[in-house]
Amino acid sequence: MISSFVQGSVQSEEEVNVDVFVYFAVVCNEVVGLGDDGGGGLLQVEELLKEFDNVCTLRVRMPITGDLTTPRNFITKITRYEKVVNIPNSMTILDELLPISIEMAKRNLHGIWNFTNPGVVSHNEILEMYKKYVDPSFTYKNFTLEEQAKVIVAARSNNELDASKLHNEFPEMLSIKDSLIKYVFEPNKKVNTF
Q1: Average pLDDT estimate for 128-133
Q2: What are phi and psi of 33, to 5 degrees?
Q3: 2-185 falls under which CATH superfamily?
Q4: Is residue 58 helix, strand or coil?
């Protein structure tokens, strides 16, 4: 069984916009990095791999872990930004979904899977949870997509991926907001939330 993890976002079957594209295939206990580019290779690799019945491609979106010190954690990133956009997105809570990936391998599942928790959450909602559970003195500012476009190097995508296929296979999987509370904010709780 070959497993592959993809981080990015698919806007349509033909177009892909990825802020950070990291693609790994795990083959015989070896991790092989297959690319780090602006997204052009994502669909090409997916197209090649989808023909194999022993490949499971997991599309990861804005990965989040309970370790709020990790610089690659989406929450760590946005708490350090001067301004954020308030747009809902699909996201992946790794603490909950990585064990599911192991179960997927045990079940010999294959194909392309949107590997996100069901539902969407906005940057503001996450930062309000951060403020409620971790740091009540935390503040942030918003800006519009137009203002954001003037200060970033690469365009960003905001979208909701359909996680129903994954949720149907694993109905115990939590919604994005419930998973954030259980796996990220409750374990990092530093303030009384009553």
Answers
A1: 96
A2: -75, 125
A3: NAD(P)-binding Rossmann-like Domain (3.40.50.720)
A4: strand
